[in-house]
Amino acid sequence: MTSKLEPEERKALLNALEDTGWRAADGQDALIKRLLFKDFSAAWGFMSQAALCAEKMDHHPDWRNVYNKLEITLTTHDCGGVSVLDIELAGALDSLAEGVAEVDRDIGRPVMRLTEPVEKEKD
C-alpha cells in the first residue's frame, strides 16, 4: 500500500508542482489544478489522453469538466492523502497539458457545476 508523504517529502515535492499551478485543495489532503482549453473538444481530447495515462499508472484523478474548463483533484484514497502516486500523476498530466492548456491560477474562483442552483441577486 502506498503511504502519505512525510512532511519533508511533501515540501520538497510539492514546491515544484506549485510552480506549475497545483495547489492544496480546501478541506482535504489533496492537490487541485484548473486548466483552461481553447474549447470543449480540446478539453475532451486532453481528458481522453489523461484517462489512458491514469489507467496505465493505475491511479485515477477526480475531475470536473464544464465546456473548456477542467478541474483536477488528486489524492490517494487508500492512504487518505497525498502520496507519491499523486506527484507522479500530476507530472504526467502537466506534460500532457503543455502547449494545449492554460493554467487557471485564480484558484479561488470555483468552476460552476450544472447541478448547483444559481443564486438570485437580492434587490
UniProtKB/TrEMBL annotation:
Protein keywords: Lyase
Class of enzymatic activity (EC top level): lyase
Enzyme Commission code(s) on record: 4.2.1.96
GO molecular function: 4-alpha-hydroxytetrahydrobiopterin dehydratase activity
Catalytic activity, reaction form: (4aS,6R)-4a-hydroxy-L-erythro-5,6,7,8-tetrahydrobiopterin = (6R)-L-erythro-6,7-dihydrobiopterin + H2O
Nucleotide-binding listed as a keyword: no
UniProt xrefs under HAMAP family: Pterin_4_alpha
Family named by the database record: Belongs to the pterin-4-alpha-carbinolamine dehydratase family.
PANTHER family: PTERIN-4-ALPHA-CARBINOLAMINE DEHYDRATASE
Name of the protein described by the UniProt record: Putative pterin-4-alpha-carbinolamine dehydratase
